[in-house]
Design goal:
By secondary structure, this protein is of the alpha+beta class. Helix content is 25%, strand content 40%.
Length: 171
Amino acid sequence: MQPTGNETVMESMMRASLALLALAAPLALASCGDPAPTYIDQAWVRLSPNKDTPSAGYFVAHGGDAGTQLRGVLTDYALKVEMHESMTENGMSSMKPISSVDIPAKGTVAFAPGGRHLMIWGVNDTAISRGKMQMTFLLANGDRLLVDAVIQKPGAGEPAAENKAREHAGH
């Protein structure tokens, strides 16, 4: 049985529609992707020259599509970790513990020398000999981010600063 002229036109339109759907599907799926996550990078620890005083930890938190809060940091490679903030009031420098830090959507929060930082008591010898320690960053949205922090011996420079110096030198 021969198709009528109308059936041929209808079939042709259906094929064109299916072809367009096939081309549009990947674009539709791409727009429905997972939201960008919050992440931590540039983590490092400056060891204290005195084992009885705390070491300091630094990192950069990058906000994803939704803002959240950093509620704490844990590690199996030290006795205790606290978030602190340095400040200057009336010409006097001091620091105080902080319980949480807002990480804005698509923003960054730096824990850096002279500002927010981690105080880390009793970094163990295993981490020191490895040159790194794993830390768990606890976020208000329920995420737990595992990050390796590079350990710098007392007096060593900031790892990121050393890398930037090499980049500028053309190495």
